[in-house]
Design a protein that fits this description.
The chain has one domain: Aspartate/ornithine carbamoyltransferase (Rossmann fold). 38% of the residues lie in helices and 8% in strands. It has 7 helices and 4 strands.
């Protein structure tokens, strides 16, 4: 998810800041995307963002060296009402789903007035269908 967003958002000219634990947001990403910013202090970057896209923390893939425990993740990286107060007025809140409510984002924020999550999820399927169609049909031939 992160890499596809990086390809698209940087191609469209967006300034992208990745935030997360150093084990999940390695500095080596800048080798491929030199214009992105990498930070590990979520609260420090929030006041400067026009949109905040949270991604699902996949604890089922393991914990330990790469993924901090849920308590540590929540403490440093959860988007909650207190952190929303640090954001610009009207900041867009995004998440491609599925959401681990209470982990990466609280229900209060996910269901709040800045939420564009349902629009993002709804539009995700037809956008992926269109991209796959164009990749599989580069010459625009009629499909039966």
């Amino acid at each position: 998810m992160v890499r596809s967003n990086l390809w698209l958002l940087t191609k469209m000219g967006a300034h992208v800041t990745l935030v997360g634990p150093p084990t999940l947001v390695p500095a080596s990403l800048k080798e491929t995307w030199p214009d992105i910013e990498i930070n590990h202090d979520f609260e420090a970057v929030l006041p400067h963002q026009d949109a905040v896209m949270m991604l699902r923390c996949q604890f089922e893939r393991g914990t330990g060296a790469y993924i901090p425990g849920q308590g540590e993740y929540i403490r440093f990286y959860q988007l909650n009402a207190q952190r929303m107060k640090l954001c610009k007025h009207g900041v867009a809140v995004l998440h491609p789903g599925p959401i681990n409510r209470g982990v990466e984002i609280t229900s209060e924020v996910a269901d709040g007035p800045n939420n564009l999550i349902l629009d993002q999820v709804t539009n995700g399927v037809p956008v992926r269908m269109a991209v796959l169609f164009l990749l599989c049909n580069p010459h625009g031939q009629q499909v039966p």
